[in-house]
Amino acid sequence: MTASLRKAAATARATKSGRVAVIDIGSNSLRLVVFDKRSRCPVPVFNEKAQPGLGKGLERHGLLNPDGTQAALVNIRRFVTMAEAMGVDSVTLLATAAVRDAKDGAAFAALIEKQTGRKVQIVSGEDEAKLSALGVLAGIPEADGLMGDLGGGSLELVRLQAGQIREHVTLPLGPLRLVEATNGNIEEAQRLVDRQLEKLSWLSEVKGKTLYPVGGAWRSLARIHMEQTHYPLHVIHEYRMSRRQSEELSNVLAHLGKKSLTNIVGMSRRRLETLPFGALVLERLIRAVKPECVLYSAYGLREGYLFSTLDAAAQQGDPLLVGCAELAGADGRFGSVSDLLDDWLAPLFRSEGRRAHVCARQPAYCLTLPGASIPITAPNMHSSASCACRSLGSLIPNVSCWRS
């Protein structure tokens, strides 16, 4: 860590930026995300990942990986200093399955606190499931079906019913654990996964509904599918696949060797060992619940934690409307002119019937918000293209959920 960064951190502590940082300490990876503010639609302004592999060997020895703990400490100290240099108002450290389950997990959390001055929240399995589900609901408010959050050490499953959290469970089915528990035998891993899923009688309640995958391993599957189908928008959130597409892709990836996996466009080399097992879990879950479709969520534990800190009124806000308003407000020149633009567009929808009129104007209204402020930040000749790119590639959630 450079002296200049430490100096910047010391200076930034004296100011308030509104930014908030969350450090997610997982079984395989660490991730620092700095959000612009604590709001209904937080925008990540910084995102960095490290992979110390804390959970390697945990299944065999019950302890954190010694090399991983040293690498994790170095990176956590670095993450905290970086967050402080960005002038964040708060830094929250969340530790999940590896730290939670390891015999030396509490001691490791205490060491982090001693070295950084920041307390580590060791998240229980129940709370991890709930926070991940809250993350999905923060991004897809009317989610109805099954959320699955696959981390390196565990799988959280939550039944969602019309935007409400119902039954939930955490299972020891993370790819790292499966590799170690089965010595890398994919057939044995399949039997283990099936046995765990068969115990959950409430899964029958979500058959035929939507499956919402969360977690880095499953996002990798979505990216691979995007590359193979030449999908033009590289936005994971609300990326939709049919049951057949998801089942076929995950089944193929679960049974490919490392050499074949390296030739796949969109494949992360860091996931060569564990991705087949992550794909296997998804494939077995799809076979068990037979979802109508698979709808990926980029919102998970970190976003769920932020959502849980909002008051009830803020939680009720529509993330699409709030996000568009905040995007426009950041660059607006004359205050809000979106209502004027919305009135101007209204005649386009009058012949569609009342129901379609209401549904169709929601996204139209949202597009007027960022569109109203584009020209000030782009040359005239590029303003329309800038508006389109900004709207299509933004991180604002709940966009594809608007349907007539």
Question: What do these coordinates show?
Answer:
The structure is a single chain. This protein has three domains: 3-123, ATPase, nucleotide binding domain (Nucleotidyltransferase, domain 5, 2-Layer Sandwich); 126-298, Exopolyphosphatase. Domain 2 (Nucleotidyltransferase, domain 5, 2-Layer Sandwich), CATH 3.30.420.150; 318-393, no CATH class. It contains 18 helices and eleven strands. The protein has helices at 3-12, 58-61, 66-85, 97-101, 105-116, 125-139, 175-182, 186-198, 216-229, 243-254, 258-262, 275-289, 301-308, 312-315, 319-331, 338-345, 354-371, 383-393; strands spanning 20-25, 30-35, 44-50, 90-95, 120-122, 145-150, 155-161, 164-171, 210-214, 240-242, 293-295. The strands form two sheets. Strands 8-7-6-9-11-10 form a six-stranded mixed sheet, with helices on both faces. α15 packs parallel to α17. The longest helix has 20 residues, at 66-85. It is globular. The termini are far apart. The relative contact order is 0.11.
What keyword list fits this structure?
single chain; 404 residues; alpha/beta; Nucleotidyltransferase, domain 5
